């Protein structure tokens, strides 16, 4: 199985497309040795989102690393952020801009297609199927796309990111009331910074599946890893820090879900 889906009871699906850490044995020799530490993983997110089972959320996570294929990129590999540094559907660079592959071992078009069929499509088929199930049962669905990233990555962005980066594709993937409720929930915690639709507005999953006209709303949260872990190898989870941000994340998800439910209250 290339992914794990735990189906819940609420009109909420949490997707964590960059939490996988496995690299198939047949591909390992193609990567530079450094890649096998999968440093650009969205580390420890299930622990940060420990609130999800109590909320009745469905949770979808992959087994394999984003270095194999990026589940948050479109199948045609169109850049998500034109004019900025981007990683591809099958990434060829670390977030530092350094090459991921040994010279001459980058994936061919045929290999990219194989990975698309073997890893990307099953994840997205599961995501679509679960959203359809939720919407059929509840009449609407909220998709929460959970991500994390190092707070400073000069190749991708200048300076230091805000702690919490809320994205709704510039308002296209979710009703404004949901984005506002999410932001207001975070604002109650004065020791974290936030932005709505800043550098990270949402990747393919948020943009493709968020469809407010069809009662499906999608929110991406890109949070800084400095909130809950050490940003350098071995990327250790910091329980003390995590205990401070877990309530923030839980309140943001609850607020988004409540705002979504309010749109369709009878």
Characterise the protein shown here.
Helix 4 packs antiparallel against helix 6 (239-263). This protein has one domain (3-263): Zn-dependent exopeptidases (Aminopeptidase, 3-Layer(aba) Sandwich), CATH 3.40.630. It is 30% helix and 14% strand. The protein starts with a strand and ends with a helix. By secondary structure, it is of the alpha/beta class.
Apparent shape:
globular
Estimate the helix proportion, in percent: 25-40%
How much of the polypeptide forms β-strand, as a percent range?
5-15%
| CATH homologous superfamily label | Zn-dependent exopeptidases
Briefly note the CATH topology name: Aminopeptidase
CATH class: Alpha Beta
What oligomeric arrangement do these chains adopt?
single chain
Rg computed from alpha carbons, rounded to a whole number of angstroms: 18 Å
- Main β-sheet: number of strands, strand sense, barrel status? 7 strands, mixed
The overall strand count is 7
Give the helix/strand class: alpha/beta
Distance, first to last CA: 40 Å
The averaged pLDDT comes out at 95
Q: Please tell me the CATH architecture by its name.
A: 3-Layer(aba) Sandwich
- Unreliable stretches (pLDDT < 50, length at least 5) are none
> What is the ordering of alpha helices and beta strands?
EEHHEHEEHEHEH
Number of helices: 6
SSE map:
Layout: E1 3-6, E2 12-15, H1 45-48, H2 52-55, E3 58-62, H3 109-138, E4 141-149, E5 164-167, H4 176-187, E6 194-196, H5 204-209, E7 216-224, H6 239-263
Parallel strand pairs: 2-3, 2-4, 4-7, 5-6
Antiparallel strand pairs: 1-3, 5-7
């Amino acid at each position: 199985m290339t992914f794990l889906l735990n189906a819940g009871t609420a009109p909420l699906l949490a997707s964590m497309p960059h939490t996988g850490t496995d690299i198939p044995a047949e591909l390992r020799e193609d990567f530079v040795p450094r890649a096998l530490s999968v440093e650009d993983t969205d580390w420890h997110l299930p622990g940060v989102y420990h609130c999800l089972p109590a909320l009745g959320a469905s949770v979808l996570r992959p087994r394999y690393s984003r270095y194999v294929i990026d589940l948050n990129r479109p199948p045609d590999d169109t850049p998500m952020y034109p004019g900025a540094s981007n990683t591809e559907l099958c990434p060829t660079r670390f977030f530092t801009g350094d090459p991921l592959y040994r010279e001459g071992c980058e994936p061919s078009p045929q290999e990219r297609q194989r990975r698309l069929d073997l890893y990307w499509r099953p994840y997205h088929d599961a995501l679509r199927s679960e959203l359809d199930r939720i919407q059929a049962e509840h009449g609407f669905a909220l998709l929460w796309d959970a991500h994390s990233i190092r707070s400073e990555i000069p190749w991708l962005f200048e300076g230091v990111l805000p702690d919490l980066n809320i994205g709704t594709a510039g308002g296209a993937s979710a009703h404004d009331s949901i984005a506002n409720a999410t932001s207001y929930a975070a604002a109650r915690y004065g020791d974290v910074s936030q932005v709505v639709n800043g550098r990270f507005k949402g990747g393919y999953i948020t943009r493709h599946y968020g469809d407010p006209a069809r009662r499906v709303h999608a929110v991406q949260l890109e949070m800084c890893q400095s909130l809950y872990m050490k940003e350098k190898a071995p990327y250790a989870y910091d329980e003390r820090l995590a205990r401070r941000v877990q309530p923030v994340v839980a309140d943001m998800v609850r607020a988004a879900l409540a705002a979504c439910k309010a749109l369709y209250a009878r």
